[in-house]
Write a structure and sequence with these properties.
It is built from one helix and eleven strands. With 210 residues, it is mostly beta strands. The radius of gyration is 29 Å and the shape is elongated.
């Protein structure tokens, strides 16, 4: 008899001696459901990528953030390296795009300068992606893994689950006119860096013994 889940199990034991006499005894086993305490821990997770793109080129990256956690906020900043030489002006124009198909979220932002002394940037931000658990609680489940799946499968708190795809596109690398006698483009593209911070809530599950 394998007792790998809660419930009431019935069986019988039969004993036979060497003379053929036997006795049979029925039994019942009650396997109680385990009790768990769930608390939530807030964590900040950062990721960053960088590269160089010429005009018309794109960079794409896909991942699944916040696995085994509840996503709460995301703050993404795309920063371009400033063009400092006069013949490289004006600053280049890039687009940052994010697609989260599982949540129907598709958003993009183009780079701009706050002022002439700061590098061009583009931002994608979102908070309140999912409800904040008001307090810790107790649950009954046979296994911690099953409880974790139940918590994360809450239909009202699944925003952001699944694949996230980031895309950086070099729309314009100005100027395009030729200033050198050899006909070289003075500004073919730009270096960029994408920094993303996620705020997540991680469920901490511990067994309660009564």
């Amino acid at each position: 008899m394998i007792l790998n889940k809660s419930g009431i199990f019935e069986g019988a034991v039969k004993v036979t001696d060497d003379r053929g006499a036997s006795a049979r005894e029925a039994f019942q086993i009650n396997v109680s459901t385990r009790t768990w305490q769930v608390t939530w821990e807030q964590k900040r997770v950062t990721e960053d990528w960088d590269g160089y793109l010429k005009q018309g080129e794109s960079w794409t990256y896909s991942h699944e953030p916040g696995i085994e956690a509840r996503l709460m906020e995301v703050n993404a900043t795309l920063t371009l390296t400033m063009d400092m030489l006069p013949h490289q002006m004006p600053q280049d124009n890039f687009t940052l795009r994010l697609v989260v198909p599982g949540s129907g979220w598709d958003v993009e932002s183009t780079t701009s300068q706050e002022n002439v002394t700061k590098a061009p940037t583009a931002y994608i931000e979102r908070d309140g992606m999912n409800p904040v658990p008001t307090e810790s609680g107790t649950y009954q489940e046979d296994y911690a893994e099953d409880l974790l799946a139940f918590i994360l499968d809450n239909a009202a708190a699944r925003f952001g689950q699944g694949n996230w795809t980031w895309q950086v596109t070099a729309d314009e690398a100005d100027p395009d006119f030729f200033v050198d006698w050899d006909g070289a483009d003075p500004d073919e593209g730009n270096d960029w860096k994408l920094e993303v911070e996620f705020v997540i809530l991680v469920p901490r599950i511990s067994e309660v013994f009564e």
